[in-house]
Write a structure and sequence with these properties.
Elements: H1 14-26, E1 30-31, H2 32-35, H3 41-46, E2 51-54, H4 80-91, E3 95-100, H5 111-124, E4 129-133, H6 141-149, E5 154-156, H7 166-169, H8 175-187, E6 191-198, H9 204-216, E7 221-226, H10 243-256, E8 260-264, H11 273-290
Parallel strand pairs: 2-3, 3-4, 4-5, 5-6, 6-7, 7-8
Antiparallel strand pairs: 1-2
Helix pairs in contact: 4-5, 5-6, 9-10
Amino acid sequence: MKRPDWLTIETPSPEALDSMKRLLDAGHLHTVCEGADCPNMGECFAQKTCTFMILGNVCSRNCRFCAVTHGRPLPVDPEEPQGVALTVQQLNLHHVVVTSVTRDDLTDGGAGHFAATIKALKKTVPDVTVEVLIPDFRGKKDALQKVIEAKPAVINHNVETVPRLYPTVRPQAIYERSLELLQRVSAAGILAKSGLMLGLGEQTDEVLKVMEDLRTVHCDILTLGQYLSPSPAHYPVVDYIHPETFAWLRQEAFNLGFLDVNAGPLVRSSYHAARALAGIQVRRKEAKVYG
């Protein structure tokens, strides 16, 4: 299936890529931008921003849509949280997004390492706001609590697709478990965020139902993007979603009560994440002043 014109991506600047890669290599750090073949990597690297991927670069799961390497993960690097914090300080970031591979091999799924990274960031760069994109920790409530108690500004957990497609797209995940995680996040007073990939064969009514489910558990931030298959061995693209459909879904999501919605063919989980949080913070301040 030929990619439509609206998925044309500008060639990234080699200088921007090299500069960021040198900085990341110096800290022995990984990014999901590189690991997941993000189409926005050039734009983000040019702006000196990225999404850090902790707990190594080998995932214990094998979701059919994901480009991240899967297999036997490496030992956890105890110096990684501070390495992330120092790199964020060098980049002078005001908002940072941290994600990870899934680590089902660890007792807490890596939750303690997430908490340590959040704490290191807050100590080293006190003014930074922290957003984490976490796995489901196999539904372990005590693991999730470690992340909640570290108090990031946003906790993101993607449901990725509609429930009907879970057995073929992400067979090791459970839709209801993901909703429960998001509900616990929102109940703790932290902004809950989630996202879906479109073009996997889902129907519009199924997407709308997932959006309703997310609002039921008080998820406040939503991202919707086009699925792009990393290789012929991965799950195929069933359909390319027109930008007008993304615009319509964005409005439907706002109608459901989401505080921020980023929807478009090239949108990914952390794309313009800082802008989303800043917008919500401004609206909340205005509501307090005029409410």
